[in-house]
Amino acid sequence: MSKKTSRSPQTGPRLPMTEVALPGVDPAWSTTVTVASTAAVEPVPGRKRRWHLLDNGPALEKAGVADRGIILAVHGNPTWSYLWRSVLKAATEAEQPWRVVAVDQLDMGFSERTGLFRRLQDRVQDLSDLTAELGIDTADVPVVTLAHDWGGLISQGWAQEHPGIHAATILTNTAVHHDNAESIPTALQVALNSALHEPLTKHTTAFLDTTLALADPAPSSEVKKAFKAPYRTRERRQAIANFVADIPAPEDHPSHADYERIAGRMSAREVPTLLLWGTNDPVFQQRYLDDLLRRAPHADVHRFEGAKHLVGESRDIAAPILTWLDEHFGDGLPVTQQHREKRANASDDFSPFFAELEARRTDDSPAVVDMGPVAQTVDGTAPALNVERTVSWAQLSSQVDRLGAALLRTGVRPGDRVNLMVPPGSLLTTLIYSCLRIGAVIVVADQGLGRKGLTRALKGSSPDWFIGIRKALVGAKALGWPGRKISAVSLDPVTKRALGVEHTVPELLDSVTTVNPGELPLVDPDAEAAVLFTSGSTGPAKGVVYTHRQMASMRDAIRVTYGLRAGTGLVAGFAPFALLGPALGAASVTPDMDVTQPKTLTARALAEAVMAIDATAIFASPAAIDNVLATADELAPAQRDALARVDLMLSAGAPIPEALLERLQTLLPAAELHTPYGMTEALPLTDVSLDVIRAAREDAQRGMVGAGNGVCVGTPVHGAQLGVLPLDSSGNVTDEITTEPGVTGEIVARAPHAKDHYDRLWITERISDQTPGWHRTGDVGHFDANERLWVEGRLAHVIKTSGGPVTPVAAEHAAETVPGVGRTALVGIGPQGSQTTVAVIETDPAPQKPGLAPGDLAERVRSTVEFATGIRPSAVMVIPEHPTDIRHNSKIDRAALSQWAERVLSGGKMSAP
Q: What is the annotated signal peptide range for this record (predicted)?
């Protein structure tokens, strides 16, 4: 053992393992120790009590292995030390192991049944008695508390009484305080009901069974038996009932004062803190995580989407715990410190994202134009449908300042999170820039994520304020979306009251006629500015956090790369780009379309938007372009002429086939067509024009090294650097960055406008930043001899065959050249390392239902793909329409298709994926 260490416990009786198996427990960990109790509940001070522990210390000591420190693991109700078996195993096997002391609290697990009602402070004292007996109090190594459920409050009480040795806090779903303005969780209300309390908690195993059901996926029957092993009789379940009865929320509860004291002191002493949270816990809900973050705002957080109360039973918490500990107590650098250093090294050259509004405050030319249906305007009036509404630069600047001042006077503070649930247009523009102007953090989640996705995103980001149109406020009321409510539009008093609305934007604007000098604060360049959610096309949508400096760098990268300047008129046919117009000094117009469904943009709506401001630039998604071309025959001559004057077209979100760009060029003959590559985490990263795409194709035909096998996305934009981490023969990523032509690997990037971090996703952030200084994109690709990047697909979609890794994009493009074949997805089926490839295609005309492709079509696809890439799909399947992401309507869900194809080809029902 290292340094001055704790004493190993005296060897005592082992667990009664003859009666039940305990999967995952090394018998060598089990031991007992006798401790003199000084808890107030004891009738005889110093009474000896027998504790049971799972402790890997004796095994480490016997092996002569030095531990890095001690993890004091404290379970809750109605579990026991078995809860921490995965942490014990990982900590024992680590290169630099940690000693884990996982306790069974008295009257719980296999510890002694004292027959006494031990309350909160008794249990804090019990833990102190134990650590003193074990010598932990005098160990010259870091002591880290790890806790769940009731263990959170108890371990915090212990930590506050041992500030000299307590080095860090790790908490899984727990609470240290409850706001009595809200009801306690329903499950606990039921268990506290006087008629049901003992029948549920003591007389039966109902409370225990309910708790064990709060894991997704559910534990095995053997694991459930192990958790129940110490609680087989009602006498052995008495403490389960007592724990529930000791919930100290009411002010007259005997433990209330102790719990208030512990909760109040938590924020007084800052130690490294990690919060690992199951998001679907019906007991310790999001509000308890929010409370912990108010008390420990410096904490690292990871939210496990879909995990329930027993998060450690359904998700790997051991590996991230040890990684986090290595960073804080080893040679690594904590992710939070990496962010601080990155900010410290940032350039001092900073112009706020909203600087153009300051420069244009006397300009009466158009800044923002709304097209088509407008629910309501900034001043609260409701125009008729199908109108244009123009806001000048002077008006926009004034409204931003006035609304910013009003929000401050209302109570919005710099750093507060403000969710904006308003369609793109002048109203959203005003709200975005007002929030940024006062240092509030905008939270932007696409309505296209759907009810479930939005709820997950909003509850996860925990905005302090919610500003929305009436429809959004109704949704917020029904679905429990967080934040104090402000209506973006005027409401009658009855509706305001029913929806819990405190203010409306028109009222706030009316309340401010003059903004006092200095009333609007200067923004901190390195403070958070925005939480922007990903599309959810590769899993649950992630919140991506940008600072003000990174937002400004994004603006500058786009401005320099595309020569956009003040006075440019642009059409924002893709919702995220609506944010950029005023920052660039460009007049922007939002077309008449459903921005949550890009493919609703028609050619006529696009032309009318161009004509409204004589726009010369268009931003649109690939799905929008597809529909514009499909509806181009509806254009009038004047509309065609307007489109012919556009000189720049940008499309982001997914690659666009060259053939589609050629068709678009006919519609926009004067325009340079660009398809920048990037992601929510860094947009854009590269730029490529149609001319470069043509040249790259010709280079591929001539056999240039690296040209081909994917989509050419060009060269880095202003300020960006790119590389790849090569794949080995098994399809795994190696760790040496290269730009050598023809080497396929995971694409990594760095740029001044790349994200700061993922919001409350510490593990995800750790993965994306595991190559120091670089963001791992999750895409695979390679460079050619002209230093152009080619994207071959997603890392998660690499097919691992017996002949090596296969990336899908080149094969998909080859299949799409077969007459009658539309979008194609190449997916893998079978075990990793011996997968076979399946091509899933759309056809024209579309098939009536999914199934195997007709034999002649399947053979044409196979032979075409094999000729182009050397890959011969084992099967070709047809589908009426691929499942795609909501934001772009173009990113195919290959994971869903892979599962579907494997099920169907294994004899399953021929249903839709």
A: none
- Alpha helix (H) residue ranges in 718-780: 762-768
Specify whether the CB–CB gap between 809 and 791 falls below 8 A.
yes
CB of 360 closer than 8 Å to CB of 585: yes
Among candidate residues 590, 589, 584, 668, the one with its CA nearest the CA of residue 625: 668
Instruction: Give me 370's structure tokens.
Output: 């709304």
Using DSSP, state whether 174 is helix, strand or coil.
coil
User: Tokens standing for 690?
Assistant: 């149609």
In terms of Cα–Cα distance, which of 650, 580, 591, 582 is closest to 616? 650
Round to whole Å and give the CA distance between 158 and 271. Answer: 14
Instruction: Say what the pLDDT of residue 110 is.
Output: 97
Give φ, ψ of 443 to 5 degrees. Answer: -115, 115
Q: 90: Cβ–Cβ under 8 A, 6 or more apart, which residues?
A: 318, 319, 321, 322
- Secondary structure of residue 37 in the 3-state scheme: strand
Gap between the Cα atoms of 712 and 792, Å rounded: 9
In this predicted structure, the answer to whether residue 472 has a pLDDT above a threshold of 50 is yes
Cβ neighbours for 472, distance < 8 A, ≥ 6 positions apart: 421, 422, 447, 466
| pLDDT tens-digit readout, 331-381 | 655 655 555 555 555 556 899 999 999 999 999 999 999 886 544 445 544
Residue 239 CA to residue 41 CA, distance in Å, equals: 14
Measured in whole angstroms, how far is the alpha carbon of residue 567 from the centre of its chain?
A: 36
The band of 883, judged by pLDDT with boundaries at 50, 70 and 90, is confident
| 8 Å CB contact between 826 and 835 | no
Which DSSP symbol is given to 884?
A: B
Taking the whole predicted model, whether its pTM rises above 0.85 is answered as yes
Start-end of H helices in 388-484:
393-410, 426-438, 450-461, 470-479
Nearest residue to 603 (alpha-carbon basis) of 616, 620, 587: 620
Indicate the length of the chain as a whole number: 913
Q: Look up residue 65 and give its amino acid.
A: V
Q: Rounded to whole angstroms, what are the CA distances from 67 to 98, 128, 170, 288, 901?
A: 5, 22, 18, 33, 49
The string over 201-235, giving b where at least 16 C-beta atoms fall within 10 Å of a residue's C-beta and e elsewhere, is bbeebebbebbbebbbeebeeebbbbbbbbbeeee
Beta-bridge mates of residue 716 = 686
Task: Name the pairing type of β-strands 273-278 and 166-172.
Answer: parallel
756: tokens are: 């700061």
Which residue type sits at 822? Answer: G
Q: Residue 704 is which amino acid?
A: M
The gap from C-alpha 434 to its chain's centroid, in whole angstroms, comes to: 25
Measured CA to CA in angstroms, residue 903 lies from 298, 800, 812, 835, 854 at distances of 46, 18, 21, 14, 19
DSSP 488-555: SS---HHHHHHHTEEEEHHHHHHT-S-PPTT-SPPPPTTSEEEEEE--STTSS--EEEEEHHHHHHHH
* Dihedral in degrees, nearest 10, Cα atoms 852, 857, 858, 859: 150
d(CA 793, CA 783): 14
Residues 6+ apart with CB under 8 A from 463: 417, 418, 419, 443, 482, 483
Give the residue from 726, 660, 648, 725 showing the smallest Cα distance to 687.
Answer: 648
How far apart are the C-alpha atoms of 307 and 441, rounded to whole Å?
Answer: 27
Summarize pLDDT for 268-312 with one digit per residue, the tens. 788 999 999 999 999 999 999 999 999 999 999 999 999 999 999
Separation of alpha carbons 549 and 564, rounded Å: 19
Cα 650 from Cα 584, distance rounded (Å): 15
Are 32 and 16 in contact, with CB atoms under 8 Å apart?
Answer: no
Per the DSSP assignment, residues forming a β-bridge with 272 are: none
